[in-house]
Amino acid sequence: MTAVATTTRPARTGRVRIGNLLRRSAVFLFLILLMAYFASSSDRFFTTGNLINVAQQNASVIIVTVGMTLTLLTGGIDLSVGSVAALAGAISAGLIVRNGLPFELSAPLTLALGFGLGLVNGGLVVFGKLPPFIATLAMMGVARGLTLLYTEGRPISGLGDTYTFWGRGVVPVPLLGDVPAPVLVALAVVLVFAALLSATRFGLHIYAIGGGEETSRLAGVNVNRVKLLVYGLSGMLAALAGILLTARLFSAQPQVAVGLELQAIAAAVLGGVSLFGGVGNVWSAVVGGFLMGVLGNGMNLLRIASYQQQMIQGVVLVFAVTVDMYLKRLEGR
Amino acid sequence: MEQRPLLHMKSIHKSFPGVQALRDVDLIVYPGEIQALVGENGAGKSTLMKVLNGVYTPDSGQIFWQGEPVTIHSPHVAQAHGISMIHQELALIPYLDAAKNIYLGREPAGALPGMINWSKMYQDAEQQLAQLGLNISVRTPVRFFSIAQQQMIEVAKALSMNARLIVMDEPTSSLTDREVETLFEQMRALKARGVAIIFISHRLDEIFEICDRVTVLRDGELVGSHPISELEANDVIRMMVGRDVEQIYERPEKTISSEVVLEVRGLSRGAHIRDVSFALRKGEILGIAGLVGAGRTELAETIFGAHPASSGEILIDGQPVVIRRPSQAIRNGIGFVPEDRKREGLFLRMSVSANIVMVVLRRLLRGLPFIPWGKVGEVSRDFIDRLDIRTPSPEQRVRNLSGGNQQKVVIAKWLTLQPKVLILDEPTRGIDVGAKAEIYQLMHQLAANGVGILMISSDLLEVLGVSDRILVMRDGRIVGEFDPATATQDAIIARATGNDPAEMVSVRAGATS
Amino acid sequence: MIRKGSLSLLMILLLLMPFTTVVQGQDEGPFTIGLSISTLNNPFFVTLRDGAQAAADAAGVELVVLDSQDDPATEAANMEDLIAQGVDAILVNPTDSDAIVPSIEAANAAGIPVFTVDRGASGGEVVSHIASDNVAGGRLAGQFLCNALGGEGRVVELEGIAGTSAARDRGEGFNAYLSENCPGIEVVARQTANFNRAEGLTVFENILQAQPEIDGVFAHNDEMILGAIEAAEAAGREGIIFVGFDAIDDALAAVRDGRLAATVAQQPDRIGALGVLTAVSALGGQEVEATIPVDLQLITSENVPAE
Fold first, then answer.
1. What average pLDDT does chain B have?
2. What pLDDT, in 10s, does the model give residues A121-140?
3. Packing angle between helix A161-168 and helix C101-109, nearest 10 degrees?
4. C77: which of A216, A319, B177, C64 is 20 to 30 A away, CA to CA?
5. Which parts of B359-476 are beta strand (E)?
6. Is B76 in Cβ contact with A216 (below 8 Å)?
7. pTM over 0.80
8. How far apart are the C-alpha atoms of B478 and B508, rounded to whole Å?
9. Distance CA A269, CA B194 (A)
10. Among A329, B455, A162, which Cα is nearest to C1's?
11. Each residue of B465-498: pLDDT tens digit?
12. Residue B461's closest CA among B438, B435, B440?
């Protein structure tokens, strides 16, 4: 049985590095170009005040995006983050206003609650074998309903200064000057999770699961535990974002953060995180989040009408992802 | 080599509901031995290997590892003993680099809990790969490497677990000839280090090149285990299928009519096909040989309209026809059984009957909006009987069928249209010997009924054994025509590679006939 | 390769160009007024915006409209952007009275006067609040339904988005009137249909199944009542008196057709216009009232404007 078959497969490590580099920095490059464009079109854009605005506006989105990146990396998704954020905001506020707890207690309790809800998501995925999309879609509805039930549809206000500090307060930082508290929180989250993903065994296992779940299991990775933890962390980060949003609005709003999950997914995808798992990192996801934020802010400053804004955001998302896929092809060649 | 066996699987029985998958099978492997495990699909090879790997628990029987009885109830236990599997579908994570893949789940601990000692991990990985003579970066994601290189990374992974026995399941199926050579060199090096290898392959030439011993399974039973030196290829085939090679390629007496059913004149498409002309007669099986990339598949796709020609003519029954889309080819009575049947020929998740009626559905509908299920069942049952497709029911999903039966489904799909021309691209790739013979018989039967068959194949035995006439392609051109009765494999290879001194004489011999 | 990538990236900027040309004329007029509006996905607020725009054009001031898309967080961002732009005054139609407070305080700190339209704010320094009184509107609806039913009957209340002040206030006014002045009316079902016509349809379909006898329906807005009317007509239920809120065009048509008994007319265009005019007056140094009520009107077949 002689097989007449030869093909030659060209070596291709040469172009890989450039491709990788470009791919990693594509969003960043795009962000810089966009900022340059806005700066040249509006003298208000490139002011410290406005840039701090942008950072502050996007702190919660970025925190949620970090959690979303984790779930996406495992090949999952977490649609419940917006609702969990709203529920966390309501409960953290309620514990203070209704139960008289201090913020120092209410905040950790709320984070624990977010982690718990995330674990429920994870449990449904890991043990219930539900597709993550469905499990977290259900949680999205449940958490939003619980929020409305708990708040009776009304905002909860009267949070006190300790709480609202985390929305609008500033912290003097050497060299940078006054930095809004939520920006510092977001920065801390990004640093911690970037390190978690790139340096720890847990991080490596997240990538491994997204790249091949069965392979990882056979290699001795505790897939179930990693996934549970990932959904737990996503829930906890959503709760953190909910607390920051509540602090920013001086009140817990039952209808806050509707669609936050989609913003986070868009940001992560813009940052090159694959919806199929295994590819992406926190940094570019954050840049993706920032990109969407800058786009919104810049368009506001340029007084682009709101209907057009939504269209442009859609176009930018499609365009950026297309460019990304193009670069991926270059890389793969 | 009389020493203590590394592995002795003794009297293994394993049954599944309705099937006795393994009956009293023995397998003995010595250190530093490369043992071929062969058998048709369903013969029990993979069940036996899954028992060895701890995926299945045997109903009865005992496994001795280095003389000690052991119980292997999971792949982890197998790994701990030093038994590693390299599956056909490689178990690497494409986005992670070689080092991460090799040490996944066994990362060296770093200074802090949960951290990884990266520098140790990369150094160890480099060392492992260097031992295999593999000079690649341990920091490049493995998807940038060739299949062959990825396989070696898997081997490195196995060795890093101190594997004493490595099972390779059809490792050469997607490798080029050169890569196969490299793999064999590595296998010999492993052998020299005392590592034993169980080599599963359908390719007898490879088995005879690399293996020390051949163990043959058939229908869940051990047929025999012999040193390679005592066997010939024909013996192995006989053990596998219970009959001879000659029987597989047995061809019926036939006379081919002089009526031309398909004629191609000056067909070209870019650099893929250049000025191809030939004629296919009713009831003829025309084999097309050539190297991969010679333009054979492209020619088939062009005739079928998947990629339209840039110039040239296609004639059916002497009438010129326009074929720029598959639907036009189908209307003109051409069927196409593609090389990659799982992706291009079948709807794997749909039933056998749905697959069979897929192209004839329009006719069954007669313009009505509702699918006539009764008629569908009738037609599909008819073809399941006629082609002897072995499926528990017409509603079985196609992906649960064996390769040979899947291929019959693809052929049945076209037969529903009673085609004049059937193009088969690598009709028996990945199909075991027994099923091959059935496919050949089916082809002969169709030819006897007047269908013109165009068969593209890289398997020269098949080309010589089945075709009535052979065309050889190179660089998009037809460079020769052979009569299978007189042609040899060497002559065809020489022509396909362009090393044939006789070429100048016969270069356009097959152009018109 | 890099060049190709950047080239593609540049293309998106070119793509944005046509949208941005409208922008170049900033700082032309004497004043720039920002209008942060809760949503432009609802005809009511679109009309309000149109009224404001018309008034701004007439007064020769520039109006910057930002859409909060019913999200308090987006609203906070929009407010910050308006402050960063340095507009002369901000008209805000809050998504929520509490959530807007920090943003108003930020505008106060930047020295930008703030006016609230339609929905008030529960804190911060607001120069003037221009709105129709939703509680009064709810009472108006309750009164009409009570009279139309002769003080007795079974009615259904379709509520707006839980947690919005419009839903709260209209419901509060409606229920307060009934409990104070019309004890013979029983509210047999009270469900939310989120200010949405499709939900109004499905929610009322369900209620029709559950309640064999319904005499009247009040919905917190016209979209929901129009959905409910479709549901009742489809089910062949007659003799139900429908009362809506907002007097949108479709509702007025329904009043003319006799399908809808009444709708409480807010005058969003006037709210918008008065908002701009009040802001202009205040910027011009004139004193303005702290509360500027905009007439509410019950529209029935008797006073419905012809097409």
1. 88
2. 999 999 999 999 999 999 99
3. 70
4. A319
5. 421-425, 452-456, 469-474
6. no
7. no
8. 7
9. 49
10. A329
11. 999 999 999 999 999 999 999 998 888 988 988 8
12. B440
Q: Stretch A152-173: mean pLDDT, rounded?
A: 87
Record: contact B93-A199, CB cut-off 8 A: no
Predicted local distance difference test score (pLDDT) of residue C16: 52
C199 at A interface, C-beta within 8 A: no
DSSP character string of A147-203:
HHHHHTTS-EE---HHHHHHHH-EEEETTTEEEEHHHHHHHHHHHHHHHHHHHBHHH
**CATH class (in words) of the domain with range C29-131+269-294:** alpha beta
Measured between beta carbons, which residues in chain B are less than 8 angstroms from residue A219?
104-106
pLDDT of residue A21: 56
> Predicted confidence band at B151 (pLDDT cuts at 50, 70, 90)?
confident
Structural domain that includes position B366: 342-419
ipTM of the complex: 0.82
Q: Which residue has the tokens 């309209």?
A: B305
User: Domains in chain A and their CATH numbers?
Assistant: 19-332 (1.10.3470)
- Residue at token pair 């720890």: A200
Is B316 a domain residue? yes
Two tokens, residue A85 = 């954020």
Checking if the pLDDT of B335 tops 90, the result is yes
Question: Is C78 an interface residue toward A (CB < 8 Å)?
Answer: yes
Q: Are residues B364 and B411 in the same domain?
A: yes
Closest Cα in chain A, distance from residue B104 (Å): 6
Domain ranges of chain C: 29-131+269-294, 134-265
| Residue B441 belongs to some domain of the structure | no
The three-state DSSP-derived secondary structure of B74-107 is CHHHHHHHCEEEECCCCCCCCCCEHHHHHHCCCC
First CA to last CA distance, chain B: 59
- A56 reaches C (C-beta below 8 A): yes
Of the candidates B321, B380, B335, the one whose C-alpha atom is nearest the C-alpha of residue B354 is B380
Residue count (chain C): 307
Residues B115, B88 within the same domain: yes
Which among A22, A259, A300 has CB closest to C1? Answer: A22
Neighbours of chain C (3+ CB pairs under 8 A): A
Q: C129 pLDDT exceeds 90?
A: yes
| C29-131+269-294 and C134-265 have identical folds | yes
* Whether residue B234 is found in the same domain as residue B283: no
Contact at CB, B176 and A5, closer than 8 angstroms: yes
Contact call for C and B: 3+ CB–CB distances under 8 Å: no
> Which pLDDT band holds residue C297 (cuts at 50, 70, 90)?
confident
Does residue B228 sit in the same domain as residue B135?
Answer: yes
Rounded percentage of chain A residues whose pLDDT exceeds 70: 90
Of B226, B248, B270, the one marking the end of a domain is B248
Contact B406, B374 (CB under 8 A): no
Q: Which of A89-93, B156-160, B350-354, C44-48 has the highest mean pLDDT?
A: A89-93
Which tens digit of pLDDT belongs to each residue from B408-459? 999 999 999 999 999 999 998 877 777 888 899 999 999 999 999 999 998 8
C-chain CB neighbours of A149 within 8 Å are none
Inform me whether the pLDDT recorded for A50 exceeds 90. no
Using a CB-CB cut-off of 8 Å, the residues of chain A touching B289 are 4
B428 plus B377 within the same structural domain: no
Please report whether residue B183 resides in a domain: yes
Q: Give the CATH number of domain C134-265.
A: 3.40.50.2300
- Which chain A residues contact residue B461 at CB under 8 A? 1-2
Q: Is C85 on the interface with A (CB under 8 A)?
A: yes
Q: Which of A22-36, B422-436, C179-193 has the lowest mean pLDDT?
A: A22-36
Q: Subunits with at least 3 CB pairs below 8 A relative to chain B?
A: A
Pick from A1, A9, A200: which is nearest to B114 by CB?
Answer: A200
Flag whether residue C129 sits within 8 Å of chain A, measured between CB atoms.
no
Question: Residue range B349-358: average pLDDT?
Answer: 91
- The domain that contains B489 carries what CATH number? 3.40.50.300
Confidence of residue C15 (pLDDT cuts 50, 70, 90): low
Q: B264 with B142, same domain?
A: no
